[in-house]
Records
---
Amino acid sequence: MPEVSFQTRSCARCTLCCRLPDIDELDKPANVNCVHCVEGFGCRTYEKRPQTCRQFQCDWLTDPALDDAWNPLDCYMIVYRQGAQRTVLVDPSLGKAWQQGHYASMLKDLARQSEAEGGYLILFAGDEVRRIRPI
Ligand code: SF4
Ligand code: SF4
């Protein structure tokens, strides 16, 4: 895809945060599409979406320190912050690829960045929950 500058980042066709997280207000489990989601388009109930959805923006949208490799449409992962914890949700369609090569390097770099800020990085991939270390 064309390079996207930070200033022009937008969700575009991405609807990954309507699938990967569990959302209590919607009684939605993790890794299934919200009933209101039109994949590749957006939210059917946008004006009435719950507070959790209104408040959520992934770090790729808000943090210029994340480069374009972290575009959720390209990397099949979402990054967001919860206080000191930085969370990565991995799309199950990525399988175990996040443990190898370029993905593993990206995650270690992100863990390094998180720990340099006094935080830590937790990854959720299917049933697996793991703290990612920078080494
Ligand atoms: S994961 Fe990020 S880019 Fe994708 S729809 Fe959600 S907020 Fe937008
Ligand atoms: S209510 Fe809308 S914004 Fe919220 S998860 Fe469902 S489709 Fe996404």
---
Amino acid sequence: MKYGRAILADVVGYVPGEQPSGTVIKLNTNENPYPPSPRVLDALWSLAAENVRKYPDPVSLRLRQACAQRYGYENADWVIAGNGMDELLSLVIRTFVDPGDTILSPYPTYTLYETLSALHGAKYAAVDLDENFQLPESLFSTPAKLCFLPRPNAPTGVCAPREAVERFCKTFAGIVVIDEAYVDFADDNCMDFPQRFENVIVMRTFSKSFSLAGMRLGIAVARPEVIAEFMKVKDSYNLNLATQAAGLAAIEDYDYMLNSASRVKATRSRLSAALRDFGFTVPKSDSNFVLAQWNGTPSAREIFERLKADSIYVRYFKVRRLENALRITVGTDSEVDALLDALRTIVYEKKPQPPAPESSTSFESLQEDS
Ligand SMILES: Cc1ncc(COP(=O)(O)O)c(C=O)c1O
């Protein structure tokens, strides 16, 4: 492109999961299958025309105060709100990384980190997770200006032990961004780390556990001097009025979110167990999705296509270490039942006939044939 910046020539833009129209079972972008708190909808309905006429609060103060209080911080100076966590991921690079600096992350992980690094002209060092998708020792010895450390990780769903992340934060010389997009579906979190480490930024999104993907809201929590740097770089009115109102109502109805997350976790257990019964390898997930690894026939890619033809959308990544896997968002119980019915047909149709009547026809015996 004649007028384009040289740096963009080789950048492949981030490709989000499909947003199909019509009636489909959508298990491809890790949205929450349940609606947000009714208080969110009340707050949105009551936005008066008079307010819409004016600019919103440029610093989202009430929302940041409510988040600080909820997460155990003294005041809003510890929090910045962004137009989705994705905006904050971009902002953290623009605030703390110079072009040419190195950005570190584990691999495989959220692909937007690499895209944003490339757009900024930063080098990107991706260190392979070990065979159990846990943090490898080599991550601890790779120097960089900034590290994205998602916990739980996506698309593996696996949560690194808190102690390992703590050790990393202590030893890493640059900024550590702990991406806690999915942490409300896990057993613990690192939200206390910014209190203890000056180089740590913890980020959350309202897209998953709070069911607000459509509103675009994320927050970052860090030392006030770190947040002050962010504030210099952000757009003046980065959060619109409706998002600020929705976010405030959501964080104030925290129990509603906890309840929604525990429903998802219950369905996740059932989904993981059923997939393992089918012969998939499913690492323990602490997220609202599972990674279903599959080495059989038909291939993972074919299964993805077949499901799509049945209007069931899951996610397939054609990249190293994920080519034999599907990432499946935890839906409602009935959505998961429909998925399992479809998978049962796909996975078993090419199997040999069940053994003769005198031998066992148990599920396990069929599985060994795969
Ligand atoms: C690991 C991870 N971080 C951040 C985000 C971005 O969340 P948001 O919707 O707030 O931009 C996502 C979205 O899927 C994600 O998977």
